[in-house]
């Protein structure tokens, strides 16, 4: 059981596609601007991250230069591709050698098929900000259909892909969904959150992981409300910025109450909840009491 | 007639040699442009005005730097008369001897036409310099300008220097100081804020312009740049979250717009507090409740801020009448 809580994630892709930048932004609190200082990753860089308390993510950031790449597929193949839960393959949309990029992807799939056939595969089309706005969707479609075809041929039919960029909130969206696919008791959280929503008569409640501010789940109902479809990622981004600025005061933030309608508070040592109420006239004490009571159910 | 009209507005003149970063400053401060995007700005060839309304109405006028040497003509005389402050931008990463000569000529002229003018120098683009070099550059520039002005017989002129960069908060801080010099009600504001701070366990508070994040006033305790940054970022966080969940139908309904208020507690006991005030201003305060209960502390703050807001409304009501009266007395 304990070994099951350790998740091995492979982060692969050709050199310069932005793998280490992603890792630094999501897990090490870098700003997008800071990532220019990152040098090339030599061989494999391991990071162990605790996520939601009992889950450990072992992120294998694999350097993408051809010298290392060759090595992964020959000498180190059993070491690298054994017991992999997730492969995250990053493609640089500006890359000149698309054929070669895909070739390396197939090599990785080939090894995975042999060593860990149950692995989940995600592809990220990265650096989307460099493509003209009106061409992004089209490019993504073309690339995804090609990749889907490739991965299906190697026995991984359900390939999920995201367009990403470190300069907007698309990065958070992609990583949220990747990480969420690893959380075992998702259904419990979801149903608990639904109940909480009805008790509090809230418009929406979102659950965030505390350290990374990735979305775990939301109580979203299809009540036809016109809410910003990108709001989760935007909130992740905003709250993370705030977390960093509160760091300047040598502290971390505990609660935020905005206009008596938006409540952000910690729910457990690993989770933050983001509650948006329907109306602003309920007394604050009552709401805070509710939040306190609900903490038991999210341990 | 024209002069009178522009008199009602305090104008800031933004000048400097070409490619010194004047347009970038305008875009970053007043249009929230990302600093990196300013790399692609074109050369400005015509004077451009930037209107900016906060507690007072301001206009920032940017003059193109290409005019090789400043040639005073009739128009510039009227221009300098109507101006409240002259901001000269010096590129610290470039050879600045030319800029200093140019600056001295401008100051000589401006001072002759309008002795009340505030003269400010931005030693700009200091983000690339090391800490030691910054101090060295500032000292050098200050000394050389002093010499230049002395030569022109203008040693009495008060010149303020600021080290700025658009990649951090220093440009906002400098502009805040510059704008504050133009607000006639500043001593009242500072006094009022001091009173507020004294009675509500507030460590530091700022009166921000929400759009530009320039602070119009603060209490008299020294400004710590870190505190300023945190408060400015808190304004951003609040506004962004607020906009995300704004109910569309509410905006259509007429009636008094509800004021934005947000409170955040940190783990070390500090509370950041934001309340919307009049005319696009927001009060942001850092509160240290120490041993007392946070709830009761906030209640006291709320009560005091209510009074402060009423005070602000009254000061503003009088400020609007004042210029007309002064005008009347003159004629």
Automatic annotation (TrEMBL), chain A:
GO CC annotations on file: fungal-type vacuole membrane; Gtr1-Gtr2 GTPase complex; nucleus
Q: A Pfam family for this UniProt protein?
A: Gtr1_RagA
Q: Does the keyword Plastid apply?
A: no
> Does the record's keyword annotation contain Methyltransferase?
no
InterPro entries listed in its UniProt record = Gtr1_RagA (IPR006762), P-loop_NTPase (IPR027417), RagA/B (IPR039397)
Q: Which GO terms describe its molecular function?
A: GTP binding; GTPase activity
By sequence similarity, the record places it as follows:
Belongs to the GTR/RAG GTP-binding protein family.
> Subunit comment for this entry?
Component of the GSE complex.
Described by its record, this protein's role is as follows: GTPase involved in activation of the TORC1 signaling pathway, which promotes growth and represses autophagy in nutrient-rich conditions.
Q: What is this protein called?
A: GTP-binding protein
| Native source species | Lachancea nothofagi CBS 11611
Automatic annotation (TrEMBL), chain B:
User: Which Gene3D superfamilies does the entry mention?
Assistant: 3.30.450.190, P-loop containing nucleotide triphosphate hydrolases
Which UniProt keyword terms apply here?
Answer: GTP-binding, Hydrolase, Membrane, Nucleotide-binding
InterPro entries named in the record: Gtr1_RagA (IPR006762), P-loop_NTPase (IPR027417), RagC/D (IPR039400)
Presence of keyword GTP-binding: yes
Cellular component, GO, one term: fungal-type vacuole membrane
An annotated Gene Ontology molecular function: GTPase activity
Task: Relate the protein's function as given in its record.
Answer: GTPase involved in activation of the TORC1 signaling pathway, which promotes growth and represses autophagy in nutrient-rich conditions.
Question: Where does the UniProt annotation locate this protein?
Answer: Endomembrane system
- In Pfam terms, one family for this protein is Gtr1_RagA
TM segment ranges: none
Keyword Electron transport in annotation: no
Upper taxonomic lineage: Eukaryota, Fungi, Dikarya, Ascomycota, Saccharomycotina
> Please, which domain of life does this record's source organism belong to?
Eukaryota
Alphabetical GO biological process terms? cellular response to starvation; negative regulation of autophagy; positive regulation of TORC1 signaling
> Catalyses which reaction?
GTP + H2O = GDP + phosphate + H(+)
The record's note on quaternary structure and interaction partners says: Component of the GSE complex.
**Family stated for the protein in its record:** Belongs to the GTR/RAG GTP-binding protein family.
The identity of this protein, by name, is: GTP-binding protein
């Amino acid at each position: 059981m304990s070994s099951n809580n350790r998740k091995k994630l492979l982060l692969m892709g050709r050199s310069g596609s932005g793998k280490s930048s992603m890792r630094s932004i999501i897990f090490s609190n870098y700003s997008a601007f800071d990532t220019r200082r990152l040098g090339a990753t030599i061989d494999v860089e391991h990071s162990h991250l605790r996520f939601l308390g009992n889950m450990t993510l072992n992120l294998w950031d694999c350097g993408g230069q051809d010298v290392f790449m060759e090595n992964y597929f020959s000498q180190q193949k059993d070491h690298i591709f054994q017991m992999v839960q997730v492969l995250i393959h990053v493609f640089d949309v500006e890359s000149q050698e698309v054929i070669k990029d895909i070739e390396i992807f197939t090599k990785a799939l080939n090894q995975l098929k042999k060593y860990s056939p149950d692995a989940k595969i995600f592809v990220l089309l990265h650096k989307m900000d460099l493509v003209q706005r009106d061409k992004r969707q089209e490019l993504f479609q073309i690339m995804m259909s090609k990749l889907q075809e490739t991965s299906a041929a190697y026995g991984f039919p359900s390939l999920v892909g995201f367009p990403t960029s470190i300069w907007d909130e698309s990065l958070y969206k992609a990583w949220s969904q990747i990480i969420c696919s690893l959380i075992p008791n998702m259904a419990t959280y979801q149903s608990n959150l639904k109940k909480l929503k009805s008790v509090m008569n809230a418009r929406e409640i979102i659950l965030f992981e505390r350290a990374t501010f990735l979305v775990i789940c939301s109580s979203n109902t299809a009540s036809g409300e016109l809410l910003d479809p990108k709001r989760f990622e935007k909130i992740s981004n905003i709250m993370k910025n705030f977390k960093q600025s509160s760091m300047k005061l040598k502290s971390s933030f505990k609660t935020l109450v905005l206009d008596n309608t938006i409540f952000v508070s910690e729910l457990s040592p690993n989770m933050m909840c983001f509650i948006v109420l329907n109306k602003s006239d309920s007394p604050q004490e009552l709401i805070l009491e509710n939040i306190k009571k609900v903490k038991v159910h999210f341990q | 007639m024209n002069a009178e009209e522009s008199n009602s507005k305090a104008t800031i003149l933004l000048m400097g040699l070409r490619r010194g970063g004047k347009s970038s400053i305008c875009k970053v401060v007043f249009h929230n442009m990302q600093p990196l995007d300013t790399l692609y700005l074109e050369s400005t060839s015509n004077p451009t005005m930037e209107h900016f309304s906060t507690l007072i109405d301001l206009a920032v006028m940017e003059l193109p730097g290409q005019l090789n040497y400043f040639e005073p003509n009739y128009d510039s005389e009227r221009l300098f008369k109507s101006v409240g402050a002259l901001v000269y931008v010096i590129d610290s990463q470039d050879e600045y001897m030319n800029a200093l000569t140019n600056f001295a000529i401008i100051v000589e002229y401006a001072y002759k036409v309008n002795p009340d003018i505030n003269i400010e120098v931005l030693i700009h683009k200091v983000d690339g310099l090391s800490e030691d070099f910054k101090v060295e550059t500032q000292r050098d520039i200050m000394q050389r300008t002093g010499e230049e002005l002395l030569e022109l017989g203008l040693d009495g002129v008060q010149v303020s220097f600021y080290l700025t960069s658009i990649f951090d908060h220093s440009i906002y801080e400098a502009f805040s100081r510059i704008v504050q010099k133009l607000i006639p009600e500043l001593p009242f504001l500072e006094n009022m804020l001091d009173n507020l701070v004294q009675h509500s366990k507030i460590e530091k508070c700022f009166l921000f312009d929400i759009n530009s994040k320039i602070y119009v006033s603060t209490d008299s305790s020294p400004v710590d740049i870190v505190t300023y940054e945190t408060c400015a970022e808190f304004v951003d966080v609040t506004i962004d979250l607020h906009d995300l969940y704004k109910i569309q139908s509410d905006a259509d309904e007429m009636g008094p717009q509800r004021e934005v208020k947000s409170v955040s507690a940190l783990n070390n006991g500090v509370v950041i507090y934001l309340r919307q005030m009049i005319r696009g201003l927001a009060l942001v305060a850092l509160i240290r409740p120490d041993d007392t209960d946070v709830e009761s502390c906030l209640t006291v703050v709320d009560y005091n801020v209510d009074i402060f807001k009423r005070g602000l409304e009254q000061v503003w009501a009088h400020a609007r009448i004042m210029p007309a009266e002064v005008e009347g007395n003159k004629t």
